[in-house]
Amino acid sequence: MGMTASHSRLLIVDKDTGLLASLADEFAPYGFVIDAAQSAGQMRDRLAGQDYALVILDIMSVPGEAPAVLRDLAIERRLPVIVHSAACVDGERIAALEMGAEDCLCKPANPRELLARIRTTLRSRARMAAQPDRAAGRAVASFEGWRVDLTTGQLFTPIGAPVALSDGEFQLLRVFIQHPRKVLDRGQLLDQVYGSTSDHFDRSIDVQLCRLRRKLSASGLKGPVIRTIRNEGYMFVHPVTH
């Protein structure tokens, strides 16, 4: 798989220098270059000087800063984040997903599994960039006065205020925008958001839906936007124009 330099460079935020060295060796044959940061400060220094395709974050390496770091990476910088941490038991894993992480693995994960999750996430990102709006052939869609730029991944309220969405949240919104007023089941959503070869589970979609609904409501969109259809799936209730 051919990749440009920025698309093959990963940043691992972790205090375990032995793990960093071993992952760098494991990933090198697959064309990935690893940079390391052992604190939030080092992470920001690395990000200031280099473009990255994805960040692997041990939340225990940024004690007390995990929510801020995840917001900075996933929302402000729109970088996909995979949390790899011993803290990733159920409660923490769901919290990490709700704060913007694309995936969460319990440390130490099998390096091949971590590699598979990385490649799945990057394929999903590349697919979104390459196919901004296959159905309409245009890059902008609107509903209820809201505007979605399907090329840049930005959402704007009727008064033009931007709404910060993580990459995962935007990809889910994009699927609904492309299939308005149609019931989509979890399997369809998983395939279109993460790819048919992904091993993401239904819970991933539930978390993304919860976050997306909350963001839209907090930004002023009234009423049910994504309706749950019992035993069938979910439906984006507003008509969409392109």
Describe this structure in words.
The protein has 242 residues and is an alpha/beta fold. The protein folds into two domains: 9-129, Rossmann fold (3-Layer(aba) Sandwich), CATH 3.40.50.2300; 140-236, Winged helix-like DNA-binding domain superfamily/Winged helix DNA-binding domain (Arc Repressor Mutant, subunit A). It is built from eight helices and twelve strands. The two termini are 33 Å apart.
Spans of 5+ residues with little confidence (pLDDT < 50)? 1-6, 132-138
CATH class of the largest domain: Alpha Beta
Residue share in β-strands: 15-25%
Number of strands: 12
Distance between the termini: 33 Å
CATH topology of the largest domain: Rossmann fold
Count of separate structural domains:
2
How many alpha or pi helices?
8
Shape: elongated
Average pLDDT over all residues? 82
In angstroms, what is the radius of gyration? 18 Å
Helix content: 40-55%
Strand line-up in the sheet with most strands = 2-1-3-4-5
> From the 3D coordinates, which CATH architecture of the largest domain would you assign?
3-Layer(aba) Sandwich
SSE string: EHEHEHEHEHEEEEHEHHEE
Largest sheet, if any? Answer: 5 strands, parallel
Specify the structural class.
Answer: alpha/beta
The CATH homologous superfamily of the largest domain is called Response regulator
Assembly state: single chain
